[in-house]
Protein backbone atom coordinates (compact mmCIF):
# COMPACT_ATOMS: atom_id res chain seq x y z
CA UNK A 1 0.00 0.00 0.00
CA UNK A 2 1.20 3.55 -0.61
CA UNK A 3 2.59 5.54 2.31
CA UNK A 4 0.20 7.42 4.55
CA UNK A 5 -0.67 10.84 3.13
CA UNK A 6 -0.98 12.61 6.51
CA UNK A 7 2.38 11.26 7.71
CA UNK A 8 4.06 12.01 4.36
CA UNK A 9 3.08 15.71 4.41
CA UNK A 10 4.23 16.07 8.01
CA UNK A 11 7.53 14.24 7.39
CA UNK A 12 8.39 16.63 4.54
CA UNK A 13 7.35 19.74 6.48
CA UNK A 14 9.14 18.92 9.74
CA UNK A 15 12.30 17.58 8.05
CA UNK A 16 12.43 20.81 5.99
CA UNK A 17 12.69 22.98 9.11
CA UNK A 18 14.90 20.65 11.17
CA UNK A 19 18.62 21.09 11.61
CA UNK A 20 20.50 18.47 9.61
CA UNK A 21 19.54 15.91 6.97
CA UNK A 22 16.54 13.58 7.38
CA UNK A 23 15.88 10.43 5.33
CA UNK A 24 12.32 9.32 4.65
CA UNK A 25 11.40 5.89 3.28
CA UNK A 26 7.96 4.81 2.09
CA UNK A 27 6.90 8.39 1.30
CA UNK A 28 3.63 8.70 -0.62
CA UNK A 29 4.67 10.04 -4.02
CA UNK A 30 1.17 11.32 -4.76
CA UNK A 31 0.45 14.72 -6.31
CA UNK A 32 -0.62 16.18 -2.94
CA UNK A 33 2.70 15.36 -1.27
CA UNK A 34 4.66 16.46 -4.36
CA UNK A 35 2.96 19.87 -3.99
CA UNK A 36 4.17 20.10 -0.37
CA UNK A 37 7.68 19.12 -1.50
CA UNK A 38 7.63 21.88 -4.13
CA UNK A 39 6.45 24.41 -1.52
CA UNK A 40 9.18 23.49 0.97
CA UNK A 41 11.82 23.66 -1.78
CA UNK A 42 10.51 27.11 -2.75
CA UNK A 43 11.18 28.23 0.84
CA UNK A 44 14.75 26.95 0.97
CA UNK A 45 14.72 23.24 1.91
CA UNK A 46 16.83 20.94 -0.21
CA UNK A 47 14.86 17.77 -1.03
CA UNK A 48 15.88 14.98 -3.37
CA UNK A 49 15.05 11.36 -4.02
CA UNK A 50 17.67 8.66 -4.03
CA UNK A 51 17.60 5.00 -4.86
CA UNK A 52 18.91 2.64 -2.17
CA UNK A 53 18.91 -0.94 -3.43
CA UNK A 54 15.61 -0.45 -5.23
CA UNK A 55 13.95 1.51 -2.37
CA UNK A 56 13.21 5.22 -2.78
CA UNK A 57 14.75 7.29 0.02
CA UNK A 58 13.88 10.99 0.18
CA UNK A 59 16.75 13.09 1.57
CA UNK A 60 15.72 16.38 3.12
CA UNK A 61 18.24 18.97 4.27
CA UNK A 62 16.39 21.27 6.65
CA UNK A 63 16.80 25.02 6.95
CA UNK A 64 16.95 25.02 10.77
CA UNK A 65 14.87 27.15 13.18
CA UNK A 66 13.43 30.29 11.54
CA UNK A 67 15.48 29.50 8.40
CA UNK A 68 12.63 29.50 5.86
CA UNK A 69 12.85 32.16 3.16
CA UNK A 70 9.89 33.87 1.46
CA UNK A 71 8.97 32.13 -1.82
CA UNK A 72 9.23 34.29 -4.93
CA UNK A 73 6.03 32.85 -6.53
CA UNK A 74 2.68 31.75 -5.05
CA UNK A 75 2.78 28.27 -3.47
CA UNK A 76 0.47 26.07 -5.57
CA UNK A 77 -0.98 23.22 -3.51
CA UNK A 78 -3.13 21.73 -6.27
CA UNK A 79 -5.79 19.55 -4.58
CA UNK A 80 -3.98 19.25 -1.21
CA UNK A 81 -6.02 20.52 1.75
CA UNK A 82 -3.60 19.12 4.31
CA UNK A 83 -0.57 20.61 2.57
CA UNK A 84 -2.01 24.09 2.20
CA UNK A 85 -3.47 24.35 5.71
CA UNK A 86 -0.40 23.01 7.52
CA UNK A 87 2.00 25.16 5.52
CA UNK A 88 -0.13 28.28 6.14
CA UNK A 89 0.48 27.69 9.85
CA UNK A 90 4.17 27.09 9.33
CA UNK A 91 4.61 30.23 7.19
CA UNK A 92 2.72 32.41 9.68
CA UNK A 93 5.00 31.22 12.51
CA UNK A 94 8.12 31.62 10.38
CA UNK A 95 7.34 35.33 9.95
CA UNK A 96 7.68 35.32 6.16
CA UNK A 97 5.44 36.51 3.36
CA UNK A 98 3.79 33.92 1.06
CA UNK A 99 0.78 33.52 -1.21
CA UNK A 100 -1.20 30.27 -1.48
CA UNK A 101 -3.20 28.98 -4.43
CA UNK A 102 -4.77 25.64 -5.45
CA UNK A 103 -6.99 23.89 -7.99
CA UNK A 104 -10.75 24.46 -8.38
CA UNK A 105 -11.64 21.95 -5.63
CA UNK A 106 -9.15 23.38 -3.09
CA UNK A 107 -10.17 26.95 -4.01
CA UNK A 108 -13.75 26.11 -2.98
CA UNK A 109 -12.77 24.85 0.50
CA UNK A 110 -12.94 26.90 3.73
CA UNK A 111 -9.67 28.42 4.97
CA UNK A 112 -11.07 30.61 7.78
CA UNK A 113 -10.91 27.65 10.17
CA UNK A 114 -7.09 27.95 9.97
CA UNK A 115 -6.68 31.69 9.34
CA UNK A 116 -8.86 32.81 12.27
CA UNK A 117 -6.82 30.98 14.96
CA UNK A 118 -3.59 32.13 13.28
CA UNK A 119 -4.85 35.74 13.47
CA UNK A 120 -5.52 35.14 17.18
CA UNK A 121 -1.77 34.48 17.43
CA UNK A 122 -0.99 37.74 15.60
CA UNK A 123 -0.82 36.55 11.98
CA UNK A 124 -1.71 38.97 9.20
CA UNK A 125 -3.59 37.13 6.49
CA UNK A 126 -5.81 38.15 3.58
CA UNK A 127 -8.15 35.68 1.92
CA UNK A 128 -10.69 35.82 -0.86
CA UNK A 129 -14.10 36.42 0.73
CA UNK A 130 -16.83 34.27 -0.81
CA UNK A 131 -20.45 35.49 -1.07
CA UNK A 132 -21.41 33.23 1.86
CA UNK A 133 -18.72 34.86 4.06
CA UNK A 134 -16.30 31.92 3.78
CA UNK A 135 -12.57 32.68 3.46
CA UNK A 136 -11.02 30.93 0.48
CA UNK A 137 -7.85 30.74 -1.60
CA UNK A 138 -5.98 32.69 -2.78
CA UNK A 139 -4.57 33.52 0.64
CA UNK A 140 -1.76 35.95 1.37
CA UNK A 141 0.12 35.59 4.66
CA UNK A 142 2.28 38.59 5.46
CA UNK A 143 5.45 38.66 7.53
CA UNK A 144 4.51 39.20 11.20
CA UNK A 145 5.66 38.05 14.61
CA UNK A 146 3.35 35.62 16.39
CA UNK A 147 2.51 35.18 20.07
CA UNK A 148 1.66 31.91 21.84
CA UNK A 149 -2.06 31.33 22.48
CA UNK A 150 -4.56 28.88 24.00
CA UNK A 151 -7.04 27.95 21.30
CA UNK A 152 -10.22 25.85 21.23
CA UNK A 153 -11.02 25.34 17.53
CA UNK A 154 -14.73 25.27 16.70
CA UNK A 155 -14.35 22.38 14.29
CA UNK A 156 -12.86 18.91 14.94
CA UNK A 157 -9.94 19.13 12.54
CA UNK A 158 -6.40 17.77 12.70
CA UNK A 159 -5.43 20.24 9.99
CA UNK A 160 -6.47 23.17 12.18
CA UNK A 161 -4.71 21.75 15.25
CA UNK A 162 -1.58 21.10 13.18
CA UNK A 163 -1.51 24.58 11.63
CA UNK A 164 -1.64 26.12 15.13
CA UNK A 165 1.15 23.87 16.44
CA UNK A 166 3.35 24.58 13.42
CA UNK A 167 2.76 28.33 13.81
CA UNK A 168 3.64 28.00 17.51
CA UNK A 169 7.09 26.70 16.56
CA UNK A 170 7.97 30.30 15.72
CA UNK A 171 6.86 31.77 19.05
CA UNK A 172 8.38 31.93 22.52
CA UNK A 173 6.18 30.38 25.25
CA UNK A 174 3.49 27.73 25.42
CA UNK A 175 0.68 27.29 22.91
CA UNK A 176 -2.15 24.86 23.57
CA UNK A 177 -4.96 23.48 21.44
CA UNK A 178 -8.07 22.12 23.20
CA UNK A 179 -10.19 19.62 21.29
CA UNK A 180 -13.62 18.38 22.38
CA UNK A 181 -13.01 15.22 20.34
CA UNK A 182 -9.41 14.22 19.72
CA UNK A 183 -8.43 14.23 16.04
CA UNK A 184 -5.49 12.39 14.47
CA UNK A 185 -2.37 13.21 16.47
CA UNK A 186 0.29 12.69 13.81
CA UNK A 187 1.68 16.23 14.07
CA UNK A 188 2.24 16.03 17.82
CA UNK A 189 3.65 12.49 17.60
CA UNK A 190 6.08 13.51 14.89
CA UNK A 191 7.01 16.84 16.53
CA UNK A 192 8.01 14.85 19.59
CA UNK A 193 10.15 12.49 17.46
CA UNK A 194 11.91 15.55 15.99
CA UNK A 195 12.69 16.75 19.54
CA UNK A 196 9.97 19.35 20.23
CA UNK A 197 8.60 19.68 23.78
CA UNK A 198 5.03 18.46 23.28
CA UNK A 199 2.58 17.29 25.93
CA UNK A 200 -0.92 15.84 25.59
CA UNK A 201 -3.44 15.42 28.40
CA UNK A 202 -7.15 15.17 29.21
CA UNK A 203 -8.39 18.30 30.99
CA UNK A 204 -11.99 19.22 31.89
CA UNK A 205 -13.34 16.94 29.17
CA UNK A 206 -10.96 18.31 26.53
CA UNK A 207 -8.02 16.67 24.78
CA UNK A 208 -5.27 19.27 25.21
CA UNK A 209 -2.06 19.37 23.16
CA UNK A 210 0.59 21.87 24.23
CA UNK A 211 3.85 22.93 22.61
CA UNK A 212 6.32 24.33 25.15
CA UNK A 213 8.75 26.67 23.47
CA UNK A 214 10.29 28.33 26.52
CA UNK A 215 13.63 29.15 24.96
CA UNK A 216 12.46 30.58 21.64
CA UNK A 217 11.73 29.20 18.19
CA UNK A 218 11.54 25.41 18.34
CA UNK A 219 14.72 23.68 17.20
CA UNK A 220 14.05 20.31 15.59
CA UNK A 221 16.68 17.62 15.00
CA UNK A 222 16.84 15.74 11.67
CA UNK A 223 15.52 12.20 11.78
CA UNK A 224 15.14 9.03 9.71
CA UNK A 225 11.52 7.97 9.18
CA UNK A 226 9.69 5.04 7.65
CA UNK A 227 6.18 5.98 6.53
CA UNK A 228 3.60 3.25 7.23
CA UNK A 229 0.88 2.37 4.68
CA UNK A 230 -2.19 4.58 4.44
CA UNK A 231 -5.33 3.15 6.07
CA UNK A 232 -7.43 5.63 4.07
CA UNK A 233 -6.10 4.13 0.82
CA UNK A 234 -6.33 0.57 2.19
CA UNK A 235 -10.05 1.24 2.72
CA UNK A 236 -10.72 0.69 -1.01
CA UNK A 237 -9.19 -2.77 -1.57
CA UNK A 238 -10.55 -3.67 1.90
CA UNK A 239 -14.13 -2.86 0.94
CA UNK A 240 -13.63 -4.48 -2.47
CA UNK A 241 -12.42 -7.72 -0.83
CA UNK A 242 -15.34 -7.71 1.62
CA UNK A 243 -17.91 -7.35 -1.14
CA UNK A 244 -16.58 -9.69 -3.87
CA UNK A 245 -17.36 -13.36 -3.05
CA UNK A 246 -14.31 -15.59 -2.67
CA UNK A 247 -11.87 -12.75 -1.90
CA UNK A 248 -8.99 -13.30 0.54
CA UNK A 249 -6.49 -10.43 0.49
CA UNK A 250 -3.57 -9.37 2.69
CA UNK A 251 -2.88 -5.61 2.81
CA UNK A 252 0.63 -5.13 4.14
CA UNK A 253 1.97 -2.54 6.56
CA UNK A 254 -1.16 -0.51 7.34
CA UNK A 255 -1.08 2.20 10.02
CA UNK A 256 -3.58 1.51 12.82
CA UNK A 257 -3.69 4.72 14.78
CA UNK A 258 -6.80 4.96 17.03
CA UNK A 259 -7.91 8.16 15.27
CA UNK A 260 -7.61 6.46 11.86
CA UNK A 261 -8.98 2.93 12.33
CA UNK A 262 -12.68 3.79 12.72
CA UNK A 263 -13.60 2.10 9.43
CA UNK A 264 -12.08 -1.20 10.53
CA UNK A 265 -13.99 -1.02 13.83
CA UNK A 266 -17.26 -0.28 12.04
CA UNK A 267 -16.77 -2.99 9.38
CA UNK A 268 -16.00 -5.55 12.07
CA UNK A 269 -19.25 -4.63 13.83
CA UNK A 270 -20.99 -5.20 10.50
CA UNK A 271 -19.53 -8.72 10.46
CA UNK A 272 -16.34 -8.19 8.41
CA UNK A 273 -13.61 -10.81 8.67
CA UNK A 274 -10.53 -8.61 9.12
CA UNK A 275 -7.55 -10.11 10.91
CA UNK A 276 -4.52 -8.15 12.11
CA UNK A 277 -1.18 -9.86 11.53
CA UNK A 278 2.36 -8.91 12.64
CA UNK A 279 1.55 -5.85 14.79
CA UNK A 280 4.55 -3.52 14.98
CA UNK A 281 5.66 0.14 15.27
CA UNK A 282 6.93 2.48 12.51
CA UNK A 283 7.88 6.13 13.05
CA UNK A 284 6.00 6.32 16.34
CA UNK A 285 2.80 4.77 14.90
CA UNK A 286 1.29 1.27 15.26
CA UNK A 287 0.86 -0.79 12.12
CA UNK A 288 0.02 -4.33 11.03
CA UNK A 289 -0.80 -6.43 7.98
CA UNK A 290 -4.55 -6.87 7.46
CA UNK A 291 -6.06 -10.08 6.11
CA UNK A 292 -9.50 -9.35 4.67
CA UNK A 293 -11.93 -12.04 3.48
CA UNK A 294 -15.26 -11.75 1.70
CA UNK A 295 -17.96 -11.37 4.39
CA UNK A 296 -21.73 -11.07 4.46
CA UNK A 297 -22.18 -7.65 6.07
CA UNK A 298 -25.13 -6.49 8.17
CA UNK A 299 -26.20 -2.84 8.48
CA UNK A 300 -25.52 -0.98 11.74
CA UNK A 301 -25.97 2.51 13.21
CA UNK A 302 -22.72 4.45 12.83
CA UNK A 303 -22.78 7.20 15.48
CA UNK A 304 -21.32 10.70 15.28
CA UNK A 305 -18.68 9.98 17.95
CA UNK A 306 -16.65 7.76 15.61
CA UNK A 307 -16.75 10.23 12.67
CA UNK A 308 -13.37 11.93 13.40
CA UNK A 309 -11.72 8.47 13.50
CA UNK A 310 -12.86 7.66 9.96
CA UNK A 311 -13.59 11.06 8.43
CA UNK A 312 -12.05 10.17 5.04
CA UNK A 313 -13.60 6.68 4.93
CA UNK A 314 -17.33 7.41 4.41
CA UNK A 315 -17.18 7.01 0.61
CA UNK A 316 -15.72 3.50 1.16
CA UNK A 317 -18.19 2.72 3.97
CA UNK A 318 -21.12 3.77 1.76
CA UNK A 319 -19.98 1.19 -0.83
CA UNK A 320 -19.77 -1.53 1.85
CA UNK A 321 -23.22 -0.48 3.10
CA UNK A 322 -24.64 -0.88 -0.43
CA UNK A 323 -23.63 -4.56 -0.26
CA UNK A 324 -24.81 -5.12 3.34
CA UNK A 325 -28.15 -6.47 4.50
CA UNK A 326 -30.37 -3.68 5.88
CA UNK A 327 -30.06 0.08 6.20
CA UNK A 328 -26.82 1.60 7.50
CA UNK A 329 -27.41 4.98 9.13
CA UNK A 330 -24.38 7.24 9.49
CA UNK A 331 -24.53 10.48 11.51
CA UNK A 332 -22.22 13.40 12.38
CA UNK A 333 -21.15 13.92 8.77
CA UNK A 334 -21.31 17.73 8.39
CA UNK A 335 -17.56 17.88 7.64
CA UNK A 336 -18.09 15.69 4.54
CA UNK A 337 -19.68 18.70 2.87
CA UNK A 338 -16.31 20.56 2.84
CA UNK A 339 -13.86 17.85 1.79
CA UNK A 340 -12.31 17.59 -1.72
CA UNK A 341 -15.97 17.74 -2.83
CA UNK A 342 -19.33 17.82 -1.06
CA UNK A 343 -18.98 14.11 -0.35
CA UNK A 344 -22.47 13.63 1.05
CA UNK A 345 -23.98 14.96 -2.19
CA UNK A 346 -21.52 13.04 -4.36
CA UNK A 347 -22.18 9.72 -2.54
CA UNK A 348 -25.94 10.24 -2.70
CA UNK A 349 -25.93 11.06 -6.43
CA UNK A 350 -23.48 8.25 -7.30
CA UNK A 351 -25.44 5.59 -5.43
CA UNK A 352 -28.75 6.77 -6.93
CA UNK A 353 -27.24 6.64 -10.42
CA UNK A 354 -26.41 2.98 -9.77
CA UNK A 355 -29.75 1.86 -8.39
CA UNK A 356 -28.83 1.86 -4.68
CA UNK A 357 -31.46 3.10 -2.20
CA UNK A 358 -29.97 6.13 -0.42
CA UNK A 359 -31.12 9.17 1.52
CA UNK A 360 -29.01 12.07 2.79
CA UNK A 361 -29.66 14.98 5.17
CA UNK A 362 -27.56 17.95 6.25
CA UNK A 363 -25.18 15.69 8.21
CA UNK A 364 -26.41 12.12 7.79
CA UNK A 365 -26.62 9.34 5.26
CA UNK A 366 -28.78 6.21 5.00
CA UNK A 367 -27.79 3.46 2.58
CA UNK A 368 -29.91 0.34 2.07
CA UNK A 369 -28.04 -2.70 0.81
CA UNK A 370 -29.18 -5.26 -1.74
CA UNK A 371 -28.33 -6.35 -5.27
CA UNK A 372 -26.51 -3.43 -6.93
CA UNK A 373 -27.73 -2.65 -10.46
CA UNK A 374 -24.78 -0.47 -11.52
CA UNK A 375 -24.62 0.88 -15.06
CA UNK A 376 -24.48 4.53 -13.88
CA UNK A 377 -22.02 7.33 -14.60
CA UNK A 378 -20.71 8.96 -11.42
CA UNK A 379 -19.71 12.64 -11.18
CA UNK A 380 -16.50 12.70 -9.12
CA UNK A 381 -16.16 16.50 -8.67
CA UNK A 382 -12.37 16.14 -8.76
CA UNK A 383 -12.48 14.00 -5.60
CA UNK A 384 -10.09 11.02 -5.46
CA UNK A 385 -12.00 9.14 -2.78
CA UNK A 386 -15.32 9.45 -4.63
CA UNK A 387 -13.60 8.10 -7.77
CA UNK A 388 -12.02 5.09 -6.02
CA UNK A 389 -15.13 4.27 -3.99
CA UNK A 390 -17.38 4.07 -7.06
CA UNK A 391 -14.88 2.00 -9.05
CA UNK A 392 -15.04 -0.45 -6.11
CA UNK A 393 -18.85 -0.36 -6.28
CA UNK A 394 -18.54 -1.57 -9.87
CA UNK A 395 -16.85 -4.76 -8.64
CA UNK A 396 -20.03 -5.96 -6.96
CA UNK A 397 -22.59 -4.40 -9.36
CA UNK A 398 -24.52 -6.27 -12.04
CA UNK A 399 -23.48 -3.78 -14.77
CA UNK A 400 -20.18 -1.83 -14.87
CA UNK A 401 -19.98 1.49 -13.02
CA UNK A 402 -18.27 4.43 -14.78
CA UNK A 403 -16.70 7.59 -13.36
CA UNK A 404 -16.28 10.86 -15.24
CA UNK A 405 -12.61 11.41 -14.32
CA UNK A 406 -9.86 9.38 -12.70
CA UNK A 407 -6.82 11.66 -13.01
CA UNK A 408 -7.11 12.95 -9.44
CA UNK A 409 -6.68 9.43 -7.98
CA UNK A 410 -2.94 10.19 -8.33
CA UNK A 411 -3.24 12.76 -5.53
CA UNK A 412 -3.32 10.01 -2.89
CA UNK A 413 -3.03 6.57 -4.53
CA UNK A 414 -0.94 6.66 -7.70
CA UNK A 415 -0.71 2.84 -7.83
CA UNK A 416 -4.48 2.27 -7.42
CA UNK A 417 -5.15 0.88 -10.91
CA UNK A 418 -2.14 -1.46 -10.94
CA UNK A 419 -2.91 -2.74 -7.43
CA UNK A 420 -6.59 -3.34 -8.12
CA UNK A 421 -5.74 -5.09 -11.41
CA UNK A 422 -3.32 -7.36 -9.49
CA UNK A 423 -6.22 -8.30 -7.21
CA UNK A 424 -8.28 -9.26 -10.28
CA UNK A 425 -10.36 -6.11 -10.81
CA UNK A 426 -11.41 -5.43 -14.39
CA UNK A 427 -11.12 -1.64 -14.69
CA UNK A 428 -10.49 0.08 -18.00
CA UNK A 429 -9.46 3.66 -18.42
C1 LIG B 1 -6.00 15.31 7.62
C2 LIG B 1 -7.07 15.64 8.39
C3 LIG B 1 -8.47 15.47 7.96
C4 LIG B 1 -8.59 14.57 6.75
C5 LIG B 1 -7.55 14.88 5.71
C6 LIG B 1 -6.15 14.70 6.28
C7 LIG B 1 -4.62 15.53 8.13
O1 LIG B 1 -9.01 16.72 7.62
O2 LIG B 1 -9.87 14.67 6.19
O3 LIG B 1 -7.69 14.03 4.58
O4 LIG B 1 -3.65 14.97 7.57
O5 LIG B 1 -4.50 16.27 9.12
P1 LIG B 1 -9.64 17.69 8.75
O6 LIG B 1 -8.54 18.15 9.61
O7 LIG B 1 -10.24 18.83 7.97
O8 LIG B 1 -10.67 16.86 9.44
Strands in their spatial order, largest beta sheet: 2-3-1-12
Oligomer: single chain
| CATH-defined architecture of the largest domain | Alpha-beta prism
Beta strand %: 25-35%
Specify the CATH class of the largest domain.
Answer: Alpha Beta
Provide mean pLDDT, rounded. 97
Please give the radius of gyration in angstroms.
21 Å
The coarse silhouette is: globular
Which compounds are bound in this model? Answer: shikimate-3-phosphate
User: Which fold name corresponds to the CATH topology of the largest domain?
Assistant: UDP-n-acetylglucosamine1-carboxyvinyl-transferase, Chain
Counting H and I runs of at least 4 residues, what is the number of helices?
13
Distance between the termini: 21 Å
Q: Count all strands and give the number.
A: 23
Write up this protein.
A hairpin with a 5-residue loop joins strand 6 (124-129) and strand 7. The strands form seven sheets. This protein has a four-stranded mixed sheet. It is α/β, with parallel strands linked by helices and 429 residues long. It folds into two domains: 5-225, Enolpyruvate transferase domain (UDP-n-acetylglucosamine1-carboxyvinyl-transferase, Chain), CATH 3.65.10.10; 231-422, Alpha-beta prism (UDP-n-acetylglucosamine1-carboxyvinyl-transferase, Chain). The relative contact order is 0.11. It contains 13 helices and 23 strands. The longest helix has 14 residues, at 81-94. The protein is 31% helix and 28% strand. The protein is globular and about 60 Å long. The structure holds shikimate-3-phosphate. Residues 6, 82, 157-159, 162, 184, 311-312, 335 line the site of shikimate-3-phosphate.
Amino acid sequence: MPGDKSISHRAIILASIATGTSHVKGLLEGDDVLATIAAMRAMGASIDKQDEQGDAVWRIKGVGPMGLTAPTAPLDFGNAGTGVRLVMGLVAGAGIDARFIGDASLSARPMGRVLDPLRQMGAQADALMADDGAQRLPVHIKAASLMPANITPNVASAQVKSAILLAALGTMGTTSVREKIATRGHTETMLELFGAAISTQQQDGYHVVALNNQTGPGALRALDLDVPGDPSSAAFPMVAALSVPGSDVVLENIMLNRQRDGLIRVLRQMGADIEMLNPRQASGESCADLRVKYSKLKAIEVGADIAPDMIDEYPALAIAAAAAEGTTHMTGLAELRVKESDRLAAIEAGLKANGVAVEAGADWLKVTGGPIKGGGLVATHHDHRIAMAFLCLGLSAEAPVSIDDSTMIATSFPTFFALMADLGADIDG
